[in-house]
Amino acid sequence: MVKENSVYKEMLSLLDQYEEDIYSDWCNGLEQACVMNLNQPLISRNASSGLVSVNFNPKLTEVLKDVKYIQSLSKIHIPAAAMTVFDKRDMFTKYVSSLQLLVQWYNKLKQTVLEVELPLIRAELESIDVQLTRAETDLTWQDLDCGSFISTTKDLVQDLVCRVSRAKENCNAIQSLMKLWSKQAMFCRKDNKRGSLIQLEDRGDRVNKKFSGTKKDGDSIHELVQDNMVLLHADPASEAWQSYLEYVDEMVVEGLFSYISHSLQFFVDNMQSWPNQAPLFEAQLMLNGSAMIFLPSLERDAGDGLYELMEGLVGDIFKTSVNINRVAAHLSTESYQVVMDDMLDLLDLRREIMERVENILKKAINYQSKFDCYTHLWQDDRAEFLSQFLLYGHALTADEMEAHRADVLHESPPTIDNFKEQIDYFEDLYAEISKLEDFRVFNGWFRVDVKFFKVSLLNIVMKWSWLFKEHLLTYVTNSLDDLQMFVRATVEGLNHPVDKHNLVEVMSHLLAVRDRQMATDKMFEPLRATIILLERYAVTIPDQVYSQMESEKAIRHMEKEVAELQESTNLFDVAIPDYRDIKLCRREITILKELWDMVEFVQSSVKNWTVTNWRQINVDQMDAELGRFAKDIRKLDKEARVWDVYSGLDLYVKNLLTSLRAVSHLQNLAIRERHWVQLIRTTQVHKYTQ
């Protein structure tokens, strides 16, 4: 036990000695170190980078920590030098914190200031450097005005750094503003749908809105630049400020370049021959008078054609740059558009777009020549053609036309087979044209709409076909009417009692019957063949036509009597009425003839449609043709509108238009089997197509 106690005391003695040695070593040179470090400058500067740092020696920080620890022991004497440092610990902490902020701001300014900004703040920066030089050489941690210096210099650095930072933020705001331009090209597809054509219906509003927005952004850019001039204390006439304006000006040029190239790239990307590429532009092939035309025109110098349209769209994009006033107004080029027009990359995009348009123009016009084989349909005079056909029984060749003009061509009136041949030709032509494509797409991005041309062409072919059908129909009605008139006159003449006064008249009727018998016997076979032919083409011979022709004969007879009566009254100088009723009757007969011709034409056209297969029904084509029918009906004489036949025809066409809309809905791929079942149940019609 005694031994353990001895060891314990020896251990305590050694620990006390070790503690005294440590304390002695800590105190050794402590005062000198404190004095030396407190006499160091406040900051130090790196000679190579020019950056500064707080020059508070880490040994002083250790002294503060050691003193704080030793004080907690309460039995060790602390040297006066260490206590002096410790007593000023709050002041040193404040100084170090302030200097660290000052150093951080200053170094950030030195590292981030742009070459173009430096000349504008050089004077202020040099003034700060003069202040910092004092802190690097003369001012130490023990100087009494150290706090005042740190506060003043910190405020100077903070003010400059804040103003430069705000100027940079303004430049970033300018760039952000211009980035928004490129988020949306000036032109786009309708409703931004991939399969839609380019949206040009609101072109004027879209362009004006873009110009207005760009002008507003340009004004904001100039306001931000003026703000930077104030922030950087710049002299507007100085070379340094003009260099800064050129820097911002180049920023605006890049923003405009980005927007214009993005808008042009929209056309480049959508005018490629990619697989599954949706058309961007469309032209309609139409028949206008005696010529085929495209709408818009595909002629290079048409003035309002596709080429000029494309030039206008590209021009609208470039003109965006006109709406911003030049930031660097001192430069020789006053407008940004001049700068944009000289950009080689933009010129290449522009040239590529226009070359693609030129290529399409050639292809589409070459495609149009495919339909030149039909030009005779709308260029030939139908009345003249029928006149020649009735003389020679066929279409005349060039040599025969010369002989016809010289009146040396032998006449050969057409047979019923000749009429059939002509009608079949146009019926086959109608079927051929009906099978023509509705659209043709070139290079994936340009579509030609042929539907309107097809409708016009089919309408003309129907008129050609009707030309011969109508002639045959007129031939039948006139022949039967003439025969009916002859029979009526003969029967009336033979019904008179035979006496010496009218014997001659009765004999003349009998003689007329004998003379006409052979011709009458021969006329029925051709008439029968003609009627059979007309029925084959679904042409009906309405009873109204017979009544009309009978009225026509009666009117002619009355007009003849009136003429004879007027001639007699002239001899006796007697006034008679002007017989307006007869003239009115003549006018109404003419209008009625036109109206019934229209009825027959419409009904025969619709009858052809009824045999069309369900999936082959072209709703757009039929709708356009019905629109033409309605237009032709409205062109009829206004006096016809009071007749029931006019009202019936007008209602018939309107009902067809309504039915056609229903057909369009039923052709929708969304129609399912249950919809057809419901339709059958509602309409009580039990036939439908799959």
UniProtKB/TrEMBL annotation:
InterPro entries reported in the protein's UniProt record: DHC (IPR026983), Dynein_heavy_linker (IPR013602), Dynein_heavy_tail (IPR013594)
Transmembrane segments: none
Gene Ontology terms: biological process: microtubule-based movement
Domain Dynein heavy chain tail positions: 7-148
Superkingdom: Eukaryota
GO annotations of cellular component type: axonemal dynein complex
GO molecular function, one term: dynein intermediate chain binding
Dynein heavy chain linker domain span: 583-684
PANTHER family assigned: DYNEIN AXONEMAL HEAVY CHAIN 12, MALE FERTILITY FACTOR KL5
Protein name per its UniProtKB record: Dynein heavy chain tail domain-containing protein
